[in-house]
Amino acid sequence: MGSEGRFFIDIFHAETIERMYGKLGNTYSVKCRNVLQIDSLLQASENFENMGNTVMLDSETCELFVVRHGETEANKTGLLQGHLDTPLDEAGRMQASAVAERLKDEMFDGVISSDLGRAAETARIILKYHPELHLMTDPDLRERNLGILQGHRYEELMQMYPEIMASFKVDGNDIPVPGGESLSECNERLAAFMERTADGNPGKRILIVTHGGALQCMFRHAVGVTAPGNIRPFSGNAAISVFRRKKKAWQLITWNDCNHLRLVPQKDTLVY
């Protein structure tokens, strides 16, 4: 096959190596220069089986394992929710169960959810596999407050407030929403939450359940704004993203991992 041949690792210890390299959506394949690398990979898989899914973080590191809530009827029909309190729909509960199954063997030191129903319900479904954890809620994890836009459909709002709606997709144009939060206010709220949580949980891994717009603010705090003209990153319902702070510096580890939803109903939904 040659020194640059491509070996698909599902040939070797498929289930174990998928757990190692597929856990957060990496490609299930690896380039190997020689067979010794395959041997090393197999040895690593055996070591992984022996150690389980414990994540060792030093005292200067905190990891936030962030899940967006499952789908709601408002997501599906294009209704902007913001601070409106809406439950999961049937597909959303299936999505939450799928992410719960995905995370059942992960080790967490705590769990914090938005206090809005769709996020808290998602968190409770995940915690069926983690009965030792106590669910805490924090209103700072809420979606952006969309004021007069809440409860209206996207298509309707595009006609009524085209500039505001266009500003939701790109950075650099923070148009205030009457009766709601500006983007900068939402950014500051989520940045403060991230810093406060990391400061209070050194060496720990915390599960977070929140909303699409809140996740965009977390992304912005860790990575920065998107380049002019580019569209902000999107997180799907029940997707997994991971942020890590080490020595006061944030790093995005994983974004919008949806591999666990391949057999579950999904559709592109509004961020808010």
Give a description of the structure.
The chain has helices at 14-21, 35-51, 73-77, 90-103, 117-126, 154-160, 162-167, 183-200, 212-223, and strands at residues 6-8, 29-31, 61-68, 110-113, 135-137, 205-210, 240-246, 249-257. By secondary structure, the protein is of the alpha/beta class. The protein folds into two domains: 6-51, no CATH class; 61-261, Phosphoglycerate mutase-like (Rossmann fold, 3-Layer(aba) Sandwich). The strands form two sheets. Strands 5-4-6-3-7-8 form a six-stranded mixed β-sheet. A two-stranded antiparallel sheet has the order 1-2. Strand 7 (240-246) and strand 8 form a beta hairpin. The chain is globular, with a radius of gyration of 20 Å.
Primary descriptors:
single chain, 272 residues, alpha/beta, Rossmann fold, 6-stranded mixed beta sheet, two-stranded antiparallel sheet, 9 helices, 8 strands, disordered N terminus
Per-chain topology:
Elements: E1 6-8, H1 14-21, E2 29-31, H2 35-51, E3 61-68, H3 73-77, H4 90-103, E4 110-113, H5 117-126, E5 135-137, H6 154-160, H7 162-167, H8 183-200, E6 205-210, H9 212-223, E7 240-246, E8 249-257
Parallel strand pairs: 3-6, 4-5, 4-6
Antiparallel strand pairs: 1-2, 3-7, 7-8
Helix pairs in contact: 4-5, 8-9
Mean pLDDT over the full residue set: 84
Task: Please report the total strand number as a whole number.
Answer: 8
Count of structural domains: 2
| Gyration radius, in Å | 20 Å
CATH topology heading of the largest domain: Rossmann fold
Percent in strands: 15-25%
CATH architecture heading of the largest domain: 3-Layer(aba) Sandwich
Biggest beta sheet attributes: 6 strands, mixed
> Looking at the structure, what is the overall shape?
globular
Number of helices: 9
Helix content: 25-40%
